[in-house]
Amino acid sequence: MAIEIERKFLVRGDSWRAQAYRAQPMRQGYLVEPGGRASVRVRVVGEHAHLNIKAAIVGSARAEYEYEIPLADAEPMLASLCIGRVDKVRHYLEHDGRTWEIDVFEGDNAGLVVAEIELEDEEASFTRPAWVGDEVTDDARYYNHALAQTPYTRWP
């Protein structure tokens, strides 16, 4: 079974931008209503598309499966089958030997910036950069499937 181990943090300021070496716009939507055992996502990044299935649990470790699908299939899925959308630009940077992904959300989630780090196990140590703020790994509101349903700009 594929397991993703990932921690999420809010981002303070823009100082991280000077370290970013790549940025990718992403469009994604969800095919399954919230409340099920898994989230099923269609994501388009450039000319590539993927179907992703993740266990619908909150926490740093969860089952994840991802499959490449034809872009010609993903586009109509996003347009007509998805329940909610998330648009963002993902920036990649290295800090202390580890890759960090910084998601700058757009559209209904504009103003939200979240950093993620994938780890080899739940006890792995890492150095937190100065721009990393509060951890939100255990806050379901910050998961993309939740942001597709209740966007950041609509939070009370």
Automatic annotation (TrEMBL):
Coiled-coil segments: none
Protein origin, superkingdom: Bacteria
Protein name: CYTH domain-containing protein
Domain CYTH: 2-149
Pfam families linked: CYTH
SUPFAM superfamilies given in the database record: CYTH-like phosphatases (SSF55154)
Record-linked Gene3D superfamilies: Hypothetical Protein Pfu-838710-001 (2.40.320.10)
CDD domains cross-referenced by the UniProt entry: CYTH-like_CthTTM-like_1
Source lineage: Bacteria, Pseudomonadati, Pseudomonadota, Gammaproteobacteria, Nevskiales
InterPro entries according to UniProt: CYTH-like_dom_sf, CYTH_domain, NeuTTM/CthTTM-like
